[in-house]
Amino acid sequence: MADENRILEKTIREKVEVDTGLLENAYVKPSDFYAPYVELPYYHGLLRNVDVAELLARPGEFLLRFAMPTTPTGPMRPFLSVYPVGSKSKDEIVHIEITTAEGKYTVETGGTFDTVALLVTHYQTEKKSVHPTASALLNKPAKRHRWQLRNYLLKMERKLGEGTFAQVNRGILRVRAKEREVAIKICRENEKITKEQMLNEVMKEVHIMKPLRHRHVVRLYGVAMDYEPIMIVMELVRGGSLQRYLRKNPGKIPTLEKLERMILGAACGIQYIHEKTLIHRDIAARNCLYSKDICKISDFGLACVGESFKLKVVCKVPFKSMAPEVFCTFRYTPKSDVYAFGVMIWEIFMDGKEPYPDKRLPEVKAMVVSGARLTFPDTTPPEIKEMTNTCCWATNPDDRLTMAQIVRKLDEFIHKYVNELSRSKSDNIEEDVEPGEPPRNSAAHLANVLDRSRETADKTEDKTDHKDKTVDCEISTYSTMSVVGEPSQVGSLSSPAQLSKKGKPSSKRKKN
């Protein structure tokens, strides 16, 4: 038990990698530094000034929080944030630092106390302001929001993956005496990013993901930030990344599954994101999760709010699915996501192969800007090649379709594709059919084949997962990471002149 407490303490204070062997059955507990604050009804954990306004609903409300140090060796600083009585705007919220002297706690208005709790109780009882000029009365503790999760209600299980600034674990979230399996992203600073910068990136991702509710977008449950390490808690998708699934099942995935459950599913998720005025900026197979025939968009570490976003500082970003205009202007739009979605379609039909393997940024930029595009394998339906080349990969972003238009095109093509397979003459309806089975090549038969194929793949996946080995995941957690996978196969290129000249598929929906 002593060893477990020692490692818990080290984990909380130094944010070293969680030792799942010793902590497998333990809920993460606060260190001695944070323990006195966690149960206080007005304590809200590690928050920035800009996050406080959302939590203080009306004048007279207050909360206690810690501000991250601005330097690597700086101390954690406790603050009382108060919405002054009589204030007409949240712009008047004040932040009062609690300082220490000789082991006592005090604020600018005077008085010393053995604990922060005694300080707060004194000002509440005496109905005195904790600010020298504003009417900062501690009338009512601010309520916690649903997205503010308690660290000690999270149980760590095995590691799923690791990136430069985060480790992802499978875990358990305990809510109202019930337990829910979740994915937990454990955030940490290093020599390249301070605690303050890390918190900024975490809260940016949290605020982007909070309102998202869609079948094809990974759901955020909240963030646990009562104490370090900060942990983002998300929906657990058991199948793992789409890229990993593709690479583990080369040549085994039916075209219909790739079209309907991977490509169309991801397209619906991206369409929803764009409708929320968001740009993902990192659409790729490695950033989609796939399980039980559902594809979900994940990893919003690079996402931004608005109709466009321009890089203003030099930083590393994923470039192998970057649109030509981004290389030239550094400006992202929803149409640059459309281009990246086209690259992801290529990844899917190449069974998870990496685009432009062994190519560095200058080489990829020269190819893309000059008009060269990746070439699809022969197994790709011609209509999908045509749609990707003309509707996703057009050099001028204005010539690309929106994701809503692409979803409609995909839906129409898949409907047509299923009907054509049903009418196929490769097997006629007079062949032997098992009792209770639908005729071969009927839509029902194709659905059964697809489901059996998935069951086989899932069994293969289960056998691998039971080995409980660490899976290397590529996590572009924050906007300082470019993703370069293992070289696998050189993607062949084609110039615009070599692209198909066939007419575009009709946008009119066919009805049965």
Automatic annotation (TrEMBL):
Annotated positions binding ATP: K185
A GO molecular-function descriptor: non-membrane spanning protein tyrosine kinase activity
SUPFAM superfamilies, A to Z: Protein kinase-like (PK-like) (SSF56112), SH2 domain (SSF55550)
Keywords associated with the record: ATP-binding, Kinase, Nucleotide-binding, SH2 domain, Transferase, Tyrosine-protein kinase
Region entry Disordered, spans: 452-512
Compositional bias segments (type: Basic and acidic residues): 452-472
InterPro entries associated with the record: Kinase-like_dom_sf, Non-receptor_tyrosine_kinases, Prot_kinase_dom, Protein_kinase_ATP_BS, Ser-Thr/Tyr_kinase_cat_dom, SH2, SH2_dom_sf, Tyr_kinase_AS
Domain SH2: 42-142
Biased composition (Basic residues): 501-512
Biased composition (Polar residues): 489-498
The Protein kinase domain, residue ranges: 154-418
Pfam families for the chain: PK_Tyr_Ser-Thr (PF07714)
Catalytic activities: L-tyrosyl-[protein] + ATP = O-phospho-L-tyrosyl-[protein] + ADP + H(+)
EC number, UniProt record: 2.7.10.2
UniProt record similarity statement: Belongs to the protein kinase superfamily. Tyr protein kinase family.
Designated name of the protein: Tyrosine-protein kinase
Species in which this protein is naturally found: Bursaphelenchus okinawaensis
